[in-house]
DNA sequence: AACAACCTCAACCGCATCAGA
DNA sequence: GTCTGATGCGGTTGAGGTTGT
């Protein structure tokens, strides 16, 4: 896309000690990184960086690989189905972008996070603003929330802040009205420890 | 045409967690 | 059990693009 980014001041960060290059990746850097990852695998990013002869920190290489160079990355246009899934997953999981991304093949956590921040969060705010929830509904929601309070994702030490969008669990998990979209994972998720501890 | 305001998204930062010594 | 370096993740920034005035 040809954006050029000026590197920001480097601060202390273990992985950024020796002055490594920052800013936009060049095609040549991409090529070298992809080559090394192909040969040595996507682990040990510090050594990948040095093997590729890139004056980049491992972290930066990892990010570039994960968000851009990795095979099967889907770029652009998030479909309605994907958007709907993101919304549901966000209500379920909060700001755990990597988990959400894990359920959207080809999408990266960064992409989803960006999409959320500039599209969906607004949408939700808009939707929420004028809505006056019927009292009965509100009380039902509250009751449900209390039921599941402990599971309300305190496990995540951060994030989740925005997930204060109230919702009915039943509604959230009611996938009956939509095109089948490989949703078995929801069931599986709820069967896992993580899923259980959120809703028990 | 010029400028401002807004939008998008790649990349950085800092913290938490993991894994090996 | 503790320390340390590496990795993973979410939050944030800011350059460049787009749209509105």
Automatic annotation (TrEMBL):
Residues 1-26 are annotated as: Disordered. Residues 17-69, 70-120 form the Myb-like domain. Residues 10-26 have a biased composition (Basic and acidic residues). One of its GO terms (molecular function) is transcription cis-regulatory region binding. Its main location: nucleus. GO terms for cellular component: nucleus. The keyword Repeat applies. One of its GO terms (biological process) is regulation of DNA-templated transcription. This is Uncharacterized protein.
């Amino acid at each position: 896309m040809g954006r050029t980014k000026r590197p920001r001041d480097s601060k202390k960060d273990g992985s950024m000690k020796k002055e490594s290059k920052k800013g936009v990746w060049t095609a040549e850097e991409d090529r070298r990184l992809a080559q090394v990852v192909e040969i040595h695998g996507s682990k040990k990013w510090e050594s990948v960086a040095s093997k590729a002869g890139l004056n980049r920190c491992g972290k930066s290489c990892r990010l570039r690989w994960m968000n851009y160079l990795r095979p099967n990355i889907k770029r652009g246009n998030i479909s309605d189905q994907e958007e709907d899934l993101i919304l549901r997953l966000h209500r379920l999981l909060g700001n755990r972008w990597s988990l959400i991304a894990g359920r959207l093949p080809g999408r990266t956590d960064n992409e989803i996070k960006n999409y959320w921040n500039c599209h969906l969060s607004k949408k939700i705010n808009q939707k929420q603003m004028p809505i006056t929830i019927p009292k009965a509904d509100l009380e039902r929601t509250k009751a449900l929330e209390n039921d599941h309070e402990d599971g309300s994702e305190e496990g995540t030490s951060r994030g989740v802040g925005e997930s204060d969008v109230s919702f009915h669990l039943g509604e959230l998990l009611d996938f009956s009205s939509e095109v089948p979209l490989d949703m078995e994972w929801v069931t599986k998720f709820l069967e896992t420890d993580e899923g259980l501890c959120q809703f028990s």
